[in-house]
Design goal:
It is built from 14 helices and no strands. 45% of the residues are buried. The two termini are 34 Å apart. With 351 residues, it is mainly alpha-helical.
């Protein structure tokens, strides 16, 4: 029996240089993402029915003059921009966590039915329980997201092979279709709720207020903290359950905590902005182009890219038509061709 020889000094040096290049590329890429995010934020507060200058933006943020129309416009756009940042980051994080937990490149809050389940429970609360406030609706969104996540995982786990990516995708698609049909059935008999739901369903951050943001901020913060704390565990899970267990990973606990993070992030995002698709699906894939398979880098990238995409989509929705196109429509228009391009360029694989 021949034992493997120890790495030679030149081989170790090459490995060290490759690691340094990878680390430098990840840091530079993250800085570029943050710059893009900053540009998106400035565009969001500057572009609208009335374009404003950079001095007006600064004054409108820190000490708006109520007699200056430009500064008042900036001040009114701030909640919308902030909500877009939070929802985009939440969906990017949730998509990354779901893909890590399931090792499924198609895992996404929309495709796995989590958004549809949260929407259905919110509609039930609006229709039959008289719920009208965001602080109450968000709890029903949590229940819907949790029930759907558990149901999809249970159905996808049936059989000897367990929860394979294909079975989870099929279970999620079937669940999303079922909840969408049930939501439509309820709305057909509730005309007054239908009028409210019609705009919320397409996904929107218009009409946001600081009070709404303060209501949902604690849930998003806890969900984001859990997601980032699980990043190392998700990287181990990507190697397979047996290897992760051998490395000391408690796979069951990681999946439960990851599920809680997804419920908090998706439930809150759906409750406050509606079921917005493609952000959670596409942003983790774009992040991997820069980071590789390490979730300690994928998750921060996905959060920054998701926030930038949602804010830029909202800005484009204000300027491409005479009226306003809701951000949920714009993310679908931008996300679908981007996802096709990523698939053609990188060939999706099991995670």
């Amino acid at each position: 029996m021949t034992l493997p020889s120890a790495p030679t000094a030149p081989a170790q040096a090459r490995k060290a240089r490759a690691g340094a290049v990878t680390a430098r590329r990840r840091v530079v890429g993250l800085v570029v993402c943050l710059v893009v995010l900053l540009v998106a934020v400035v565009a969001s507060v500057a572009v609208g029915s009335r374009a404003v200058s950079l001095p007006d933006i600064v004054a409108g943020v820190f000490s708006p003059d109520p007699d200056d129309i430009a500064q008042v416009a900036v001040h009114q756009r701030l909640p919308r921009t902030l909500l877009g940042l939070l929802v985009g980051a939440a969906l990017g994080l949730a998509g990354g966590v779901m893909q890590g937990l399931t090792r499924n490149p198609l895992a996404d809050p929309g495709l796995l039915g989590v958004n549809a389940g949260a929407s259905f429970f919110v509609v039930l609360a609006l229709s039959f329980l008289g719920v009208g406030s965001l602080s109450s609706a968000v709890w029903f969104a949590f229940v819907g997201a949790a029930v759907t996540s558990a149901g999809v995982w249970a159905v996808g786990s049936l059989g000897r092979a367990g929860a394979t990516p294909l079975k989870l995708a099929l279970a999620g698609a079937a669940t999303a279709a079922a909840f969408t049909s049930l939501t439509t059935l309820v709305l057909l008999s509730q005309r007054e709720v239908l009028e409210v739901f019609r705009f919320w369903q397409v996904g929107s951050v218009g009409g946001a207020s600081f009070s709404e943001i303060l209501t949902v901020l604690p849930f998003l913060a806890v969900g984001a903290f859990l997601a980032v704390a699980l990043a190392g565990g998700l990287t181990n899970l990507a190697l397979g359950d047996d290897v992760a267990t051998a490395l000391g990973q408690r796979t069951g606990l990681t999946r439960v905590a990851g599920g809680v993070a997804v419920v908090l992030l998706c439930g809150t995002a759906v409750a406050v902005a509606g079921p917005i698709g493609f952000v959670g699906l596409t942003m983790p894939h774009l992040a991997r182009l820069f980071t590789g398979p390490d979730y300690r880098w994928i998750l921060p990238y996905a959060a920054a890219l998701g926030a930038a995409l949602l804010v830029l989509a909202d800005v484009l929705g204000r300027v491409v038509a005479d009226g306003e196109i809701e951000v949920g429509v714009m993310t679908a228009l931008l996300g679908a061709p981007f996802f096709v391009a990523v698939v053609r360029r990188t060939r999706l694989r099991e995670l």
